Amino acid sequence: MRKFKGLKKATAITCALSMVVAGLPMSSPVFAATDEQKAMVADATKNLALSKTTSLFPECAEGAQANLNDGKLKADVTGDAHCALSKKGWGYTGESYAVIDLGDYYDASTIEQVLVQYKDAAANDTCITRGYEIQFSSDNATWNTVASAGEDVTFDKDNCTVNDISTTGAVRYVRAYYPKTADYGIQITEIAVLDTNGDAKTVEVSHCENAAGVTVKSEDYNQITYNITAGENQADYKYMVYDDNVLVGNQVEAGKDYKIDGVSAGIHKLKVVSSYNGTTSEGIDSEEVTVKDSSELYTSPRNIVNKNNNADVSITDISSYYSDEYAESAVNMIDGLLTAGEEKNVAFRTGKTSPQSFVIDLGREYKTAELDRFMIAYTNPRTYAKKYSIELSDDGAEYKEVASGDSLICGTDGVQPAYSNAVKLDKLSNYEAENVRYVKVTLSEGAVNYGYVINEIAIVANTDTPTYTTTVDIDAPADLKAESTKYGVIDYEIVAGEGQEDYEYNVYVDGKLAAEKVKAGKGQLTGVTDGTHNISVKTVKDGSLSKAVTKTVVVPLDIVEDGTNLVNENTKWTLNNESDNWSDNPCGTGTSLATGSVVAGGNWYSLMAHTTLVFEQGKVYTVKFTIKSNVKKQFLVATNTNGDKFLASSATATWTGNDEEGYTCDYSAEFEWTAATSKQNFIIALGQLTTEKDGDRGIKENDSIAAGDSINVSVTDISVVGKTKQVESSDTTTSTTTPSATTNPSVTTPDASSADVSTPDVSTPDVSTPDASTPDASTPDVSTPDASTPDASTPDTSTSDETTTPKVTTVKPTTAKPTTAKPTVKPTTKKASLKSTKVTKKVSKKLSSKKVKLTFKKVKGAKKYDIQVSTSKKFKKVLYKKTVKKTKVTLSSKKLKGKKKLYVRVKAVGAKKWSKPVKIKIKK
Fold first, then answer.
1. Apex CA 480: angle with CA 475 and CA 481, to 5°?
2. Residue 888 has pLDDT above 70, yes or no
3. Residue 684: what pLDDT?
4. pLDDT digit string, tens, across residues 732-768
5. Is the peptide bond before 29 cis (omega within 30 degrees of 0)?
6. Contact 147, 136 (CB under 8 A)
7. Is beta strand 314-316 parallel, antiparallel or unpaired with respect to 356-367?
8. Interatomic CA distance for residues 436 and 398, integer angstroms
9. Residue 566's beta-bridge partner residues?
10. Which of 399, 536, 653, 784 can bridge 548 by disulfide, Cβ–Cβ 3.0-4.6 Å?
């Protein structure tokens, strides 16, 4: 047991602390708060911190700053009278602290204890599992830690820590410092600096000189700009700046403009305190400055999305809304009113999944250079988004991000007005177009269980008279058809609208221009990587663009034929990280050596090279390799793209004692494995392999190599060869492979009359085609072709799409592939009308899902089927549509998420009637 100085009653030790003696930290315990100490907290003669000036960082996210040192412990007040050190909206995890200015300089040796009480003893709102430091300073700049506790800190029964202090020198500032902040802040009820002996002594210290002056102004909403003028001989001085007892500038320099953002509206006066050589000045006050609140911008003419300023503005492309009653309430976000509340007449509520998005159609084109900031106002801190992304577009198809972050908060709960956030469009230079019409807002994270409740938004210009042009809307094309049946190729068809016969169009893949000023009709893009892509088309007229028509296309993988080795001399092998010691091309092209120093017990999994190979999902592959090294054990593994799942590995190599110089292990292996995904990292690695993925692969003593020895590695004769497919591969049209960016898609000239690239039906050969099994001896010499009679191997690009009989004069052998050319003569017989189909299985989806699995009856003679999804049984408005070849498909679109009522219907391409509409069952 240990007694406090000046206390007659002993106290129990409850947890550890460290204390400073002559400036050296030592271990010491944290004592429980006694009745005597509790009484001292409210006694100004014993508690030097009582009602003194405080400052904190980052801010008081909940409660009141005055609660930090009002002399009231939790048991003495009704409710939770605390101050939470954090940022409003929670989630801040950086450093935080509270500083108490004792108002005078004290002899630190006459201060015995610092007591801190917390609102509770929970890990999510205190320093438990995080630790703290108690620090002293004479100038609020240089801090000396006089007590601390680590992650194992514990509280007494009253949620207190009481640190015994033993240090010397002058102290004026006392800081409770927290290197990490809890999810809900560090919630403090009281901080007390105790002179338990009643003998606290002030000391005389020399003050440095005040600054000569300070100028303040407010040139922007919620912002103050200040500039300090140094006094004589103050070249080495620094300065601390306070606004309402909050430190807003620490160790700043004279002669520079500093901006303080997030300042509350009203009249402010800054205080500037000089800091030099461990001393401070008395401080000087600035003139008063009036700060205006940015909420005024919602109704200002600078807000270009306020309906009162811009009657043409509208909200479109909403990802989802909370319920049907909010379907028409998005207009409340642009009415210019900051009215708080969550009802449909004052706010919009999104769906309850993250992320959520919507597009603001300005209805006009505004000058990009005049845009300044985005603003959004919330009502409820339990229904708001934390992260944001703002994107701009001039055509509604290609967007560029101009702002993003995770700083959005809701600091109030249902009070008037709604809580406003403002963020600068700080990446505006990313957007190269001169004008803007569409603004896409994406919100995520935060609290979305009840949707995101949005009361108001604003796009603010930097001028009271924003420049805009009322544009004449250009009609978009009537439709766009697009599909991909071959790796690297997208076939598309632009369907012109009425009166658009002579129009020109631009074609984009994933927002990048792929074909410029083409005519309506069919075209083809090549060189497109596998994965999911968005292909868009826009009308081009008089230098302006229409809104885009966009379709999603999945380009299949380039699957190798059976028996082909995926690893060859052109395979690109990459080092796993900079610490690896492989040569530039260690595998596949012959012998290569890798050398490096051995670290005893080190993890050898980092010594590797890898390459990405494309596999057919479900196919069995044979892997062969030969490896030599002076390390006894090694292996080869195949992992998925993330490298976190072992799919296969070789057995541990057998020790052979090879006599070749530099090698002691010579090992060849062959094994089979089934590709679980389409794209995978294939990894060569050295080390000891265990049964567990995260097991020990370190080199052991019996591996004939010691710390400091060199590593010699040779990996040769690698092959990864596909065998006969054992398992049906997945439908590439529903592949979940992460989409890759296009790589300079090359463009063929689209032509409405060009040949259809789809494979003709060869199951019904044309009876007019000569019998390939009976070659005509009179077949003309292919070296002198008849210029008027095209060869069957060369499609006639002028042929009609409706023709079924190719014009052929050269007899082909039986092994010849069917021609891909379209026939040149239209059939004389009238095509029979295709029958209607019907959905054969019950259709259902989860409310939060964007996917619907659909099975319908095959129609004889049909090659493709059109599918439509609508929220209306009469299909007044089609929500989603797709053309497919198979009768069992998966539909995927974010437009299907969150919808409580959906209908689907199917029609064979060429049929007259749709199937009977089927209601999709929605599961929660």
1. 170
2. yes
3. 59
4. 333 333 333 343 444 443 443 333 333 333 333 333 3
5. no
6. no
7. antiparallel
8. 11
9. none
10. 536
Q: Please state whether the peptide bond connecting residue 417 to the residue before it is cis, i.e. omega within 30 degrees of 0.
A: yes
Span 724-729, average pLDDT: 44
Give the whole-angstrom CA distance, residue 730 versus residue 740. Answer: 19
Distance CA 882, CA 874 (A): 18
Residue 237's alpha-carbon distances to 283, 589, 777, 917, in angstroms, are 13, 65, 105, 79
426 forms bridges with which residues in the sheet?
Answer: none
**Contacts of residue 678, Cβ cutoff 8 Å, sequence gap at least 6:** 557, 614, 615, 616, 617, 735, 737
Got the DSSP string for 493-507? EEE--TT-TT-EEEE
Q: Report the pLDDT averaged over residues 209-228.
A: 94
Contact of 87 with 95, CB cutoff 8 Å: no
At residue 857, does pLDDT exceed 50? Answer: yes
Mean pLDDT of 837-860: 86
C-alpha 222/C-alpha 245 separation (Å) is: 17
Residues 6+ apart with CB under 8 A from 48: 102, 106, 111, 193, 194, 195, 200
Q: DSSP E strands: which ranges in 692-849?
A: 713-722, 746-751, 844-846
Non-local CB neighbours of 423 within 8 Å, separated by 6+ positions: 373, 374, 375, 388, 390, 403, 405, 407, 408
Mark residue 135 as left, alpha or beta (left: phi above 0; alpha: psi -120 to 50; beta: remaining).
Answer: beta
Whether 751 contacts 521, CB under 8 Å? yes
Peptide bond between residue 355 and the one before it cis (omega within 30 degrees of 0): yes
Residue 334 tokens, joined: 């642009």
* pLDDT exceeds cutoff 60 at 583: no
Using the structure block, give the residue that is written with the tokens 């007899």. 811
- Mean pLDDT on 534-547: 82
What is the tens place of the pLDDT at every residue in 146-184?
999 999 998 988 899 999 999 999 999 999 999 999 999
The beta-strand segments (E) located in 231-322 are 238-243, 246-252, 258-261, 266-268, 270-276, 279-280, 284-285, 289-291, 314-316
pLDDT at residue 743 in the model: 39
Q: What is the DSSP letter of 38?
A: H
Pairwise CA distance, residues 281 & 589, whole Å: 73
Mean pLDDT, rounded, for 47-58: 92
Please give the share of the chain, as a percent, with pLDDT higher than 70: 68
Ordered by where they begin, the domains of the chain are 13-194 (2.60.120.260), 213-276 (2.60.40.10), 295-469 (2.60.120.260), 485-555 (2.60.40.10), 574-722 (2.60.120), 844-923 (2.60.40.10)
CA nearest to 174, candidates 21, 79, 54, 10:
54
Tokens found for residue 561: 């034929």
pLDDT tens digits, one per residue of 136-149: 998 888 899 999 99
Instruction: Give the whole-angstrom CA distance, residue 616 versus residue 25.
Output: 63
What whole-number distance in Å separates Cα of residue 349 and Cα of residue 343?
A: 9
Q: Are 321 and 327 in contact (CB under 8 A)?
A: yes
Phi, psi (degrees; rounded to nearest 5) at 446: 70, -135
Of 506, 688, 515, which Cα lies nearest the Cα of 602? 688
Q: How many Å apart are CA 517 and CA 114, to the nearest integer?
A: 76
**Whole-prediction pTM:** 0.48
**For residue 844, what pLDDT is reported?**
86
pLDDT of res. 711? 54
8 Å CB contact between 719 and 625: yes
Confidence band (pLDDT; 50, 70, 90) for 601? very low
Length of the chain: 924
The 10s digit of each residue's pLDDT in 611-643 is 667 777 677 777 776 666 655 544 444 444 444
Q: What share of the chain is helix, strand, coil (3-state, %, to 5)?
A: 5, 40, 55
| Backbone phi and psi for residue 368, each to the nearest 5 degrees, phi listed first | -60, -45
Q: Which two tokens stand for residue 668?
A: 């060849």
